Amino acid sequence: MSHTQSPPDIVEVGARDGLQNEKVLFSTEAKLRLITDAMAAGITRLEVASFVHPGRVPQMADAEAVIAGLPQDADATYIGLVLNKRGYFRAVETRAGGKRGVDEVGCVAIASDTFAEKNQGQTSEESVQISKDIMRLAPKDGLSAQVTISASFGCPFEGDVAMDRVVDMAKSLAEADPREVALADTIGVGAPGHVAELVARVREAVPHIPLRAHFHNTRGTGIANAWTAYMAGVTVLDASIGGLGGCPFAPKATGNIGTEDLVFMLERSGVKTGINLDKLIAMTAWISEHLGRPTPSAVSQAGGFDAAG
Ligand code: MG
Description:
Layout lengths: L8 E4 L1 H7 L7 H13 L4 E6 L12 H6 L8 E6 L2 H9 L10 E7 L2 H8 L3 H14 L6 E7 L12 H12 L6 E5 L6 H14 L5 E5 L6 H10 L4 E4 L19 H10 L8 H15 L6 H5 L7
Helix pairs in contact: 2-11, 6-7, 7-8, 8-9
The site of magnesium ion has 8 residues, from loops.
């Protein structure tokens, strides 16, 4: 089997989304190992930290130290998540004094008011405006910027989210010229039919903006959603090593799709990712040891498959 469509880019979100909900604290060194091992496996774009208040997300308290410890000359894109201007200025500060710091900021707009309030103390519309403000500042500070629409497929508090709302948000956010707009299924309630329709509608609304997708496997639909999004024209997919992840402000949210599950699925479909599956699986072994429990992804437990026997 082979596909003529270009392979999707994969963004490793393990050091941010993967760990933010994790009770076992990862030291700065352990986070750096996670990031550098992922790069050694062939991943070139990574969320490395979130600039949130450490009282809100203790696992991210060492964001600046992680970023200061990143390889300075790596041919990779380091993304820092920012939920507001204060976070944005922390991201900019990582570049002070000629340091590399982060290369890109990831903004977060939220499709429902209740989740926007709980996650970042904003209304949905405020989260759009703040993201646009930040994305307009970023190029002046030498940063690229991107935005994720969280709860695109459903809200943990309000239930269904209207596709019209997500489409309108994408149109408004596109005015600030993001590197891409990401559609995130924060709580894992999306299914392929919904994904195909929403991606098609957003593509039609903002045809000039690349689309990215972020899926959680909370209810077993994550990998199917990723394939569906790719077939519908999404060019960038998020994943987390080991399938770690969750959201501290969304009840019952569990892991992202596992990077190794995504790579396995794509490669077995004839899509060349350039990522070394064996190295990813090896990473999950030490992560599992560190956590004291197995990582949730399927491939980290079952292993890869040697087609030659
Ligand atoms: Mg997430």
